[in-house]
Amino acid sequence: MTPIEIGLWVTAGMLVMVVLGMRVAFAAGLAGVIGLVWIFWDKKDYEFAQLAWALTVGIKTAGQVPHGKVSSQALSLIPTFILIGYLAYYAGLTRALFEAAKRWIAWVPGGLAVATVFATAGFAAVSGASVATAAVFARIAIPEMLAVGYDKRFAAGVVAAAGTLASLIPPSAILVIYAIIVEQDVGMLLLAGFIPGMFSALVYTLLIVGLALTVKGFGPPVGGFTWRQRFASLPPALPIVAVVVIIIFFVYNPFGGDAWGTPTEGGAIGAFIVFVIATYRGMRWPELKDALLETAKLSVMIFSIIWGVLIYVRFLGFADLPSAFSDWITSLHYSPMMILICILLAYAVLGMFMDAIGMLLLTLPVVYPAVMALNGGEAVTAADSAFGMNGTMCAIWFGILVVKMAEFCLITPPIGLNCFVVAGVRDDISVQDVFRGVTPFFIADAVTIGLLVAFPSIVLWLPSQA
Which positions, given as ranges, span the membrane (predicted)? Predict the structure, then answer.
């Protein structure tokens, strides 16, 4: 049996384990170990006497992966970004941000829903976790919308959809994971996510206003705020703005010159600043303990998936499956753009059955080399490429596209994690209600993805200035 055939059998077995409900971390890790042992035993013609040797070499090879890859400095970004979000919540900064957005924006049709989108985008700029963002605003924004007559399904759908913005707007944990898997610059990818993230928020806003204008009683505006009240709402929200500015300057200096430091340093300093603010505002030990525990739980979940998938990726390298898939993709008699669109559609379908991070980690080791080959390779120039961009820019562009697809998968049934989180926070709202309420945002996401594919400059303009 050839290594590629072994790779296909093991991959099929892993997908079966995932569909049957096994955690992605364990399914990928187990598949990787079994695959490595199988390949090494195959080299010895399946001699029973050599099975112990194959087991030893396979397990040792798998064991080298977690320490070698997960000790990467870039991965330390993830817990710091998550911690910033939880500390900001316990410091009351998220409520202050929502209150400021409400007082300035709630007068427009669908105003509280629009304020939720803007406040969520602001919070996403200091928290890299979509699930945490959805959970926080389910507690803050939904009661406010229900109090003025919003349909509970739509209110829940707004929060679930807006929570996905944390996947794109830096600092984004999932963009960091993508950068590590495909070995691209973390800072450039975080920078590339800013404009598409804000663009997604704008499309959501237009959708909400359009629905409020065309459907009677859909989203009543909320007025009655004086200019004094509006300006008074700004100072409590300024700490979040300060943290956002600091993180941006550690990724990219918009005034020219070198960045202030590395994204890792920016995340650590941002977490320290929010901790000081939270302490000043009276955060007690039980709240700090909860923030640390929630950060640890979410970080462990993400790191476990990374460990398992990296073992599987090591096996794929021995099986030569990525190269075989790239050769097959480039041999197809279709335009590169058509193939790319089919890949994105496949992600939309796959996301219905897998969580976003697991989906990307399992597929990128195979799909990413194929997309780069479609464009002409990693060393290709813009003039000679299929998509009109060099290898580095293609990697960034494709990264934003697949992360946007991961956003989409966070709200699609039956797995849509953000929908389950919102329903879990609100006892009076079922997960079916959330899925119904989030349906209009499928159209908004489809429009956004189409525009990002058609106009790559939306993604690439900011990184090209760095």
Answer: 12-41, 74-92, 112-142, 154-181, 187-215, 236-255, 267-283, 295-313, 333-350, 395-425, 437-462
* Helices 77-90 and 285-319, packing angle to 10 deg: 150
Q: Which residues contact 410 (CB under 8 A, 6 or more apart)?
A: 130, 131, 160, 163, 164, 167, 356, 416, 417, 418
Are residues 194 and 280 both part of a single domain? yes
378, part of any domain: no
Report the candidate in 52, 58, 53, 26 with the shortest Cα–Cα distance to residue 39. 58
Total domains, the chain = 2
The closest of 320, 363, 319, 365 to 6, measured between CA atoms, is 319
CB 438 within 8 Å of CB 162: no
Q: Give CA torsion, residues 231, 245, 356, 75, to 10 deg.
A: -150
* Domain end residue (candidates: 71, 99, 120): 71
**Tens-place pLDDT, residues 30-46:** 888 888 888 888 877 77
Residue 149 lies in a domain: yes
34 shares its domain with 94: no
Please, are residues 389 and 397 in contact by the beta-carbon 8 Å criterion? Answer: yes
350-355 own/partner pairs: CB under 8 Å, 24+ apart:
350/409, 351/405, 351/406, 351/408, 351/409, 351/412, 351/415, 352/409, 352/412, 352/413, 352/414, 352/415, 353/18, 353/19, 353/414, 353/415, 354/18, 354/24, 354/409, 354/415, 355/24, 355/409, 355/415, 355/417
Tokens of 63: 């064991």
pLDDT, tens digit (0-9, with 9 covering 90-100), for 221-276: 787 788 888 899 888 888 888 887 777 777 666 666 666 777 777 778 888 888 88
Same domain, 169 and 293: yes
Asked if the bond preceding 414 is cis, omega within 30° of 0, the reply is: yes
Q: Which domain holds residue 281?
A: 74-298
Rounded to the nearest 5°, which phi and psi values hold at 276? -60, -45
Query: What whole-number distance in Å separates Cα of residue 466 and Cα of residue 457?
Result: 14
Dist CA 363 CA 329 (whole Å): 14
Length of the chain: 466
Type of residue found at 400: I
Q: What is the DSSP letter of 22?
A: -
Number of H helices, E strands in the chain: 21, 0
